[in-house]
Amino acid sequence: MAKIESVSPLAPVGGFPDLPIIDGVTFSSLEAGVRYTGRTDVMLAELCPGSVVAGTFTTSSTRSAAVLDCQKKLGSDASGGAAIFVNSGNSNAFTGKSGLEAVGKITEAISSSLGINENRIFTSSTGVIGEPLKWERITTKIDALKAGLQPDGITGAAKAIMTTDTFAKGASAEVTVGGEKIKIAGIAKGSGMIAPDMATMLVYIFTDAKIAQSVLQDLVSRATNTTFNCITVDSDTSTSDTLIAAATGCTSAPEILAGTPEANNFFTALQSVMLELSHLVVKDGEGATKFVEVQVTGASSDADARKIASSIANSPLVKTAIAGEDPNWGRVVMAVGKSGAAADRDLLSIRFGDVLVAENGWVSPNYSEEAAASYMKNDHIILRVDIGLGASQCTMWTCDLTHGYITINADYRS
Amino acid sequence: MAKIESVSPLAPVGGFPDLPIIDGVTFSSLEAGVRYTGRTDVMLAELCPGSVVAGTFTTSSTRSAAVLDCQKKLGSDASGGAAIFVNSGNSNAFTGKSGLEAVGKITEAISSSLGINENRIFTSSTGVIGEPLKWERITTKIDALKAGLQPDGITGAAKAIMTTDTFAKGASAEVTVGGEKIKIAGIAKGSGMIAPDMATMLVYIFTDAKIAQSVLQDLVSRATNTTFNCITVDSDTSTSDTLIAAATGCTSAPEILAGTPEANNFFTALQSVMLELSHLVVKDGEGATKFVEVQVTGASSDADARKIASSIANSPLVKTAIAGEDPNWGRVVMAVGKSGAAADRDLLSIRFGDVLVAENGWVSPNYSEEAAASYMKNDHIILRVDIGLGASQCTMWTCDLTHGYITINADYRS
């Protein structure tokens, strides 16, 4: 792996946020030496009996053993508690039959140490693909992880799951239901191999809400669609993408029932946590120097809006132009054109921030290259494209494509 | 535009090839100062009466005025001769109504100077998008271009159409029909904004074959599918992609009729010229240091084979690994997985050249990292992926992704 010593220039100024304690969850992390040395690389979260677990996962046809294992366990009996374990350094993906064996050894060890049914042990692995996971390095540390479990251990957990990330990522929200507070806290990792149309990377969200598994799953799936499924760093999709949301039910607020105003309020809070985490992943995009919001409006259909936003957000030529602080709207036109979605050159309008650059099939008569060039110096670039054909819209988030990306990825493994 | 002083390390050792004279065609090129200074930037080819013209074009919904104009003229009456004009420096794309006006002014001037119907004047423009084409700089040079027309001017023409290209591209072939030779000579430009599923870039092919327009069009469309539609530099699709093939009928060989063995022989020769030109475009890919052939076999369908090959050939993580001479087959697994095509992890096999790296869902027991790392030092990398599900296959060609690409594109326009 290329050593990246410096933190992303887009990292939050205040560092890792103060996340609230979520009743019913404890966290632990330590150094197991899976691959890295001198840093933590495993985390464990224990969830109290009754905790329900929902999740969304990569749709890759070559997804990892841990992903396959989690997917089948989501809705299992929640009465006896649950645990989430994550290691970084090795993704245990494309490791043949030994992959599933490693997952079995780890879940077995956690199950026996914590006294929780194996069916309720959810694991994730992130890091290099195709190398055997040395599971003994992990199973020998489970008792030590158990001994370290603390209600306020989430910051350590956020750090232990990092790979090429340059900063740990966390977000939280609160919502009041029946006069009582429900708290939500989440952590994420991700920097490269990030593309929409899946869950994304590793994300763990904890809440003390009382909520049925099926209701939580529905809200998580819907929120994924406008958050993690709307980000891209490099158009490449991981084999390990996992988002797990766990609700302990420890709040004194009443249960959240499907289709109620309370469910809507909870959804809004959940979505805000997921949106913030997804943005943090983009802001730590490999080599990123600009955070880019692509707003597509006026498309003929939701599918077309997403196609166009994705085509722009994934275009190497658009992303290198933004890296060069060049308001090169011609490349945006190119990306709209190649998307396969319905578009009419003469109805397009393109804005960088509030600067109208193109309309009616050409550069705007009032376009000021100076104003546009000055806007491009911002860290946060909003690229607005109106297709002029309908009412559908989609917003995606990406970063620029820089020398840093090449440096990180041209010798990641060697 | 970033100045790239050095020629691509993948450029042909012998320089521009000796292309045969094609009876019935003359070429001219000169400096018109459209955008560049100190180099030629316009070319004209005049075709004798009876010449038929076929072509394939970008499918972009924002394609340029010249592309739209060429598309409607292809099958028009060939009795009165034809001409092909190309300028570099400005693509005349997304230039609103003024785009079509510029095409009109240029074709009108050529028509009047050469005495050829406007319907038979095919033009292309390549370069920056969205700036008005200063057509007067071109129309004032038409008589000088006419005066310079020469049967052996094709090398000059190949140079005049270059933009970020670091070398001029040409290829030729011969085929014997009825004991008489038919000659084919082609030129191309292209370096960035190159992606499959369209014609690609600018390509002009000339032959003295006697052939009906509909037969030539059919052969050109078929050959495009396995040549220019199988290359990618950066997954971005130009708004100006144009391939024009002109047959003068000046050979003494008999006419090529559809469905005959002669048509097959001619097709093979035509395809070889198109394949060579398409490879030269990849070898001049922006920043390229490796020429990469992605061979996918064993897919469930032709569409799936193409999806997988395209997913691998466009993956920034695969391409940066190749730049770093890293046999990172895990990233190949990732690209297969995200393609959306049917794949079974445990049936995949992956080879770098002849080095078997992965099979049966894991690294091969005989895999030698040393042998693979040594293979990656080659200029020409063959990446072979067998899906193990069916009999469909697809080969695509691409290049690596390097710092050179970022340097060229992060300030192309500023």
Give the SSE layout.
The structure is a homodimer of 414-residue chains.
Chain A: E1 25-30, E2 42-47, E3 52-57, H1 65-73, E4 82-90, H2 96-114, E5 121-128, H3 136-139, H4 142-147, H5 154-160, E6 169-177, E7 180-189, E8 202-207, H6 213-226, E9 242-247, H7 261-283, E10 291-299, H8 302-314, H9 316-323, H10 329-338, E11 349-352, E12 355-359, E13 362-363, H11 369-375, E14 380-386, E15 392-399, H12 403-409
Parallel strand pairs in A: 4-5, 8-9, 10-14
Antiparallel strand pairs in A: 1-2, 2-4, 3-9, 6-7, 7-8, 10-15, 11-12, 11-14, 12-13
Helix pairs in contact in A: 6-7, 8-10
Pfam family, one (chains A, B): ArgJ
Pathway (chains A, B): Amino-acid biosynthesis; L-arginine biosynthesis; N(2)-acetyl-L-ornithine from L-glutamate: step 1/4; Amino-acid biosynthesis; L-arginine biosynthesis; L-ornithine and N-acetyl-L-glutamate from L-glutamate and N(2)-acetyl-L-ornithine (cyclic): step 1/1
InterPro entries (chains A, B): Arg_biosynth_ArgJ, ArgJ-like_dom_sf, ArgJ_beta_C
Structure, described:
Chain A folds into 2 domains: 25-281, 4-Layer Sandwich (L-amino peptidase D-ALA esterase/amidase); 291-409, ArgJ beta chain, C-terminal domain (Ubiquitin-like (UB roll), Roll), CATH 3.10.20. The first copy, chain A, is 31% helix and 24% strand. Chain A contains 12 helices and 15 strands. In chain A, strands 13-12-11-14-10-15 form a 6-stranded mixed sheet. In chain A, strands 3-9-8-7-6 form a 5-stranded mixed sheet, with helices on both faces. The first copy, chain A, is globular, with a radius of gyration of 22 Å. In chain A, 60% of the residues are buried. The model of chain A is unreliable at 196-200 (pLDDT under 50). At the A-B interface, helix 2, helix 9, helix 10, strand 13 and helix 12 of A face helix 2, helix 9, helix 10, strand 13 and helix 12 of B. Chains A, B: Substrate binds at residues 163, 189, 200, 286, 409, 414. Chains A, B: It catalyses: L-glutamate + acetyl-CoA = N-acetyl-L-glutamate + CoA + H(+); N(2)-acetyl-L-ornithine + L-glutamate = N-acetyl-L-glutamate + L-ornithine. Chains A, B: Pathway: Amino-acid biosynthesis; L-arginine biosynthesis; N(2)-acetyl-L-ornithine from L-glutamate: step 1/4; Amino-acid biosynthesis; L-arginine biosynthesis; L-ornithine and N-acetyl-L-glutamate from L-glutamate and N(2)-acetyl-L-ornithine (cyclic): step 1/1.
